[in-house]
C-alpha cells in the first residue's frame, strides 16, 4: 500500500499518453465552424482539433479522461470561468484554443488529484489495518546461523 500514490499517478500518466495518441489519431484540421461557432471552440492544438462541431464525449479517449479526472475538470472550468468567462469559447494563444488550455490545466490537476487520492487511501489503510506487513529483505532475527550448517 506504500506505493498507492505512485501507482495511481503512473496509471494517470499512462491514461494521458493514451489520450494524446488517440487525440493525434482522431483530430482533424481546424477550420471555423460554418454554423457560426466562434473560432477556438473545441480543443485545438496547433491546427489539430476535436469537438469543434461535435461533443468531445463522442470520443472514447475523451470520455475516459473526463470521468477519471472529473474533479479536475470541474475545478479547472470553475477557475477559468471565474477569471475570464470568454476564455473557454473564443480565444487562441500560441496556437492553442481556450479549450486546449483548459485541457492542459486538467492534465496537471489530475496528477495532483490522483496523488492525493493515493495518499488518502494509504493513510486510511494504515489507520484501519495498522502498519503494513509483508516480506522484507531483512536478516532473520533468530540469531546467527549455527556452524554446522556452513559448507565449503
Any overview of this molecule?
By secondary structure, the chain is mainly alpha-helical. It has one domain (4-131). The protein is built from four helices and five strands, in the order αβββααββα. The chain has helices at residues 4-26, 60-68, 70-83, 98-129; strands at residues 28-29, 43-45, 48-50, 92-93, 96-97. α1 runs antiparallel to α2 and α3 (70-83) packs across α4. The relative contact order is 0.16.
The dominant shape is elongated
Q: What is the CA-atom radius of gyration, in angstroms? A: 24 Å
Strand order of the main beta sheet, please? Answer: 1-3-2
Q: Spans with pLDDT under 50 lasting ≥5 residues?
A: none
Structural class: mainly alpha
Q: Can you give the mean pLDDT?
A: 79
Measured by DSSP, the beta-strand proportion falls in 5-15%
Straight-line distance between termini = 41 Å
Domain count: the total is 1
**Percent range of helical residues:** 40-55%
What is the N-to-C order of secondary-structure elements (H for helix, E for strand)? HEEEHHEEH
The number of strands is 5
Largest sheet: 3 strands, antiparallel
